[in-house]
Each structure stands twice: as C-alpha cells, then as structure tokens.
Amino acid sequence: MKVLFMNRKNCFDVIGGDTIQMVKTKEYLERIYGINIKIGFSEDDIVNYNPNIVHIFNIQTVDETYEYVRLCKKYGKKIVISSIYWDLIYAKIVSAIWSKKLKTFNPKGKLSSLLMRILENDFARNGLISLFKILLRYKERQNIYKIRKIIELADIILPNSDEEAEIIQRHFGTKIKYKVVFNAVDSIFLNDGTHRQIDNSSNIKLLTVGRIESYKNQYNVMRALALLHKKGYNNLSYTLVGKIIDYKYFHFIKKFSEKFKISLSFIEEVDHRSLPSIYKNHHIHVLPSFRESPGLASLEAIASGCFAIVSKYPYAPITSYFSEYLNTLVYICDPFKPTSIADAVENTILAIKQRKSIDLNLNKFEFFWERTAQQTYEAYMCLL
Predict the structure, then answer these.
(1) CATH for 187-359, options being 3.40.1390.10, 3.40.50.2000, 3.60.40.10, 3.40.50.1820
(2) What is the model's pLDDT at position 7?
(3) CA 341 to CA 334: how far, in whole Å?
(4) Per-run averaged pLDDT (10 residues), the chain, 384 residues
(5) Most buried one in 46, 95, 169, 179, CB count within 10 A?
(6) Cα separation of 367 and 185, whole Å?
(7) pTM to 2 decimals?
(8) 100: how many CB neighbours lie within 10 A of its CB?
(9) What distances in angstroms separate CA 341 from CA 219, 222, 327, 381, one per listed residue?
(10) Is the separation of the CB atoms in 38 and 5 below 8 Å?
(11) What is the pLDDT of residues 1-40, one digit of tens each?
(12) Cα–chain-centroid distance for residue 115?
C-alpha cells in the first residue's frame, strides 16, 4: 500500500498540532504496518508517487486542502481527511478582545480585562456569540462552501472524537462518513507516570504548558488564583511553560501577579523530552482554554501522573478524552468564569490532600500513537 500525506505547505516551518499528528501517524504506520508513506505538497507528488490513498490533514487550511482534494478527484485517488476541526468562535472573540488594535488604543490592557469580566455573564456572552456567528458566516461564506465540498468529496473523514464529528455536521449542515482516530501522546510520558507518589505537604504547584496567548486563558487562571488567595490559599505557585506569542498579554499577566502577590514563574520553550519531569514536579496542570481538541498538554499531564483542569464542552471534547478520569484526575471548568476555575482548583487541592499516590490504569488509557496508527490503518483497509 502506498499513501501520500498532504498538509499545508508551511507545516514544517510553522509547526502545529497538525504537523505532529501527521509525522507521528506516518512513523507508526510505517513501523507497525509497513505502509509506504511519502509527504507531498503538489500535483507532481500525486502524479509521480501514484499512491493508492491520499491522506490530507487539516480542513481549516481551507484553500490548500480544497486544492488537494480537487487534484485527488482529477487523478481518481481515494481521499482520507484528518479534519482537525473545532469551533473557533470563542477563541476568536477572546482574540478580538486582546487584539493589537485594542491594546494600541488601551496599552495597559484595562479595557480588555473589563470586556473579559463582562463575558462572565452568560446572557452577555451568548448575545455576543450569536452576533459574532452571524458576522462570521457572512464573512467566511466562501470558506464554508469549500469545506462543504471537501467533506462531500472525501471518501472518509477521521475526526479525533465524536464531538468533533458532531460539530462538523452541525456547522456545515451535512452528514459525514467518518471514523474516530484518537490524538495521542508520546510514550515518554508513560515511562514513570503510571504510578506517582504525591507530595501533599508542600506548596501546591500549578502549571500550564502551551503557547502564551489569550485563547489559552492564562489571564483567567491568574484571576482564579487571586480569588483563592483571598480565601486563604497562600501556598499556591503558578508556572507557565511555552512560547510567548503575545508579549503585551504576557506582561499584563506579570503585572497582575505582582499586584495580587501570586507566585509566577516562566520557562521558555523546552525540549519535549524535558516535559515529563516538569509535569511530575507540579501537582496540577490547568488549561481552561477557549478551544482545545482535545489539548495534548492535558493528556500528557494525566499520563505523567499529574492532576488536570480542562474546559468543559463545547470548548473541548470532554466525553471522548476525559470522562474516564472526571472528578478523580480531571476537573472541568467554564473558561469564561474565574470563579469556576477557582472551584476546580480548590476541588483538585482537596483531592491531592486526600491521596498519597496516583495510579494510571493503562488498560483504560487509549491515547497511544500505536492506537492512532491502528485506527488509521483500519480506515485505509475499509477503503481498499
């Protein structure tokens, strides 16, 4: 079997989750099933390699994916698409609030923080979301048409959860032929993570691994910690690990930590192999993001024997990835509400105080690349 992988042309220059998913899927399909796989970006790659299947990653890079699908139909190739799609409306609203234009108008970020406080109100948030959806559907009508065509022409879609499939069908008003293929974490996170002793006598260490930007929501984590500080939780520290995307947002967070006397530290991007020890040195990984699908850092944290706080649906696919661990290793929150994040942190602290160790049941943890490869291979065999 010959398979051609196709992705956005800059996927190795601007590395994202779609890049990692593509490279890891290729590695494990070749290793376990002996499939011949090439990565390509052009019509010549399709013609010269002459694959049985073309596997395209990411429908949100609309123009490139649409062109790849058109070429596949031209040459009569079977089309598999890893959709990598989620509802971006909440992240787009928050990004607009922290936008460069707004910060130029109000460099201290006070207007942005005021708008974030307004969005804590469900009525205000729902009204703004409804308005945003109307405007976006008009602005992006051409992209909506193209994604519908991509879905219609694909032989099978590989979403990473049933929730993702449901969102695609709802957004584009069409049924899809699909098979769920899970996202996965590297085995390095499981080498020691299946059993971990908890040091519950020291300060509680919180951690967020991920890019430092508004939709990852580090600001509302800080607000939650300030609320807990007022309640007498004075032994909390917070570490950010990741690339700074928005420096003004980062500096606003630093100023906030100084004002409310919150212990904040920052670690630049680190080698991926260093992350397991970082997770193990912290009690809670908190990622109340406005858009995760599912949030690989949260899976890595769980695999490393770390408690995790994640956003509830519709901000992340909770049922597919975290239902097995809810209220034991994983606690959920509303990312728009610091009170909700604070409650999740408080519940996690109570769990930490009551336990001496964490044991991860590997029989129930399905998020290995071997499993991803198996599900992908099954999809290929169905087509052939």
Answers:
(1) 3.40.50.2000
(2) 97
(3) 7
(4) 96 86 96 96 96 96 96 97 93 89 73 90 88 78 90 96 95 92 89 66 89 94 96 94 91 92 90 90 95 92 92 95 90 97 96 80 80 97 92
(5) 46
(6) 6
(7) 0.90
(8) 9
(9) 11, 10, 14, 44
(10) yes
(11) 999 999 999 999 877 889 989 999 999 999 999 999 999 9
(12) 24
Residue 198 three-state SS = coil
Residue 351 structure tokens: 């769990």
The whole-angstrom separation of Cα 178 and Cα 176 is 6
- Report the alpha-carbon distance of residue 197 to residue 195 in Å, rounded: 7
Q: How far is it, in rounded angstroms, from Cα 197 to Cα 358?
A: 6
- Both tokens assigned to 177: 């032929």
Nearest alpha carbon to residue 198 among 9, 12, 349: 349
From start to end of the chain, where are the E strands? Answer: 2-6, 36-40, 53-57, 78-82, 156-157, 195-197, 204-209, 236-241, 263-267, 284-287, 307-311, 330-333, 357-359
66-96 burial, b at 16+ Cβ within 10 Å, e below that, comes to bebbebbeeeebbbbbbbbbbbebbbbbbbe
Q: What would the two tokens of residue 154 be? A: 């694909």
Burial classification of residue 245, based on how many CB atoms lie within 10 Å of its CB (0-12 exposed, 13-18 middle, 19 or more buried): middle
Comparing CA positions, the residue from 186, 189, 352, 215 lying closest to residue 287 is 215
Query: In the prediction, which pLDDT does 105 show?
Result: 67
- Beta carbons of 80 and 156 less than 8 angstroms apart: yes
Domain at 2-85+140-184+369-383, CATH from 3.10.20.30, 1.20.1250.20, 2.40.30.70, 3.40.50.2000: 3.40.50.2000
In the chain, where the domains are located: 2-85+140-184+369-383, 89-136, 187-359
Please state, in angstroms and rounded to a whole number, the distance separating the CA atoms of residues 384 and 375: 15
What is the DSSP secondary-structure string of 282-343?
-SEEEE--S--SS-HHHHHHHHTT-EEEEEPTTSS-HHHHHGGGBTTTEEEE-TT-HHHHHH
User: What is the bridge-based pairing of β-strands 156-157 and 195-197?
Assistant: unpaired
Give per-residue pLDDT as tens, 32-66: 999 999 999 999 999 999 999 999 999 999 999 99
d(CA 21, CA 372): 9
pLDDT at 249: 92
